[in-house]
Amino acid sequence: MLTSNITPDKETGIGNWTKDDFINALKYGQKKGEKALTYPMLPYPQLTDAEAGAIYE
Fold first, then answer.
1. Half-sphere exposure (CA, 13 Å, Cβ side) for 2?
2. Per-residue confidence at 21, pLDDT binned at 50, 70, 90?
3. What is the dihedral of CA 57, 13, 8, 54, to 10 degrees?
4. Of 57, 41, 39, nearest to 49 (Cα)?
């Protein structure tokens, strides 16, 4: 299984994502109305925005 590049690289990773993009992807599996996560990565809706934001930072 190929995995997505979650490094801060702006061309191949998530370097262009905003903090809100990251939080929504992590908590709800969505980024601007598109699916952001695939199995085996599951959303973590139990995280607070502060916790998800800390992971982003």
1. 2
2. very high
3. 10
4. 57
Q: Please tell me the distance from the alpha carbon of residue 46 to that of residue 9, in angstroms, as a whole number.
A: 28
Q: What is the pLDDT of residues 27-37, one digit of tens each?
A: 999 988 888 88
5-17 b/e (C-beta count within 10 Å ≥ 16 → b): eeeeeeeeebeeb
Q: Is pLDDT of 22 > 90? A: yes
Q: Give the tokens for residue 35.
A: 């699916």
| pTM, entire model | 0.85
